[in-house]
Amino acid sequence: MRGNNKSGFFVFIILLGGICGSFIGEILGNNIGPLSFLKATYPIGTASPFVLNLKVVEITFGVNFYVNVMAIIGVIIAILLYRKY
């Protein structure tokens, strides 16, 4: 049970690193002209959602990630900090 809790915390740290990195990238990209490339996002995911119609219920699946340079750097820093502490 303990290992499952540890992996859940690891996923949380990675998501937190990505969100913080993306937020910092947006701030730097909007306020400093030469760093405008930091706010450029690149979509990763499905172009249109997958629809499963079972006649009783219709389920729609779709995942999109919008990644920028600082989000990747934030994830890397989060992983390094997790491994260190």
What does this structure look like?
- The chain has 85 residues and is of the alpha+beta class.
- It has one domain (2-84).
- Helices cover 54% and strands 19% of the residues.
- The chain is built from 2 helices and 4 strands, in the order αββββα.
- A two-stranded antiparallel ribbon has the order 1-4. Strands 2-3 form a two-stranded antiparallel sheet.
- It starts with a helix and ends with a helix.
- The model has no long low-confidence stretch (mean pLDDT 92).
Outline:
It comes from Clostridium botulinum C/D str. DC5. Helices cover 54% and strands 19% of the residues.
How many separate domains make up the residues? 1
Beta-strand percent range: 15-25%
Average residue pLDDT: 92
The gyration radius over C-alpha positions equals 17 Å
H/I helix tally? 2
- Shape category: flat
Strand order of the largest sheet: 1-4
The total count of strands amounts to 4
Largest sheet report? 2 strands, antiparallel
Helix percent reads: 40-55%
Multimerization state: single chain
Estimated structural class: alpha+beta
Low-confidence runs: none
Transmembrane segments: 7-28, 59-82
Organism: Clostridium botulinum C/D str. DC5
Pfam families: DUF4321
InterPro entries: DUF4321 (IPR025470)
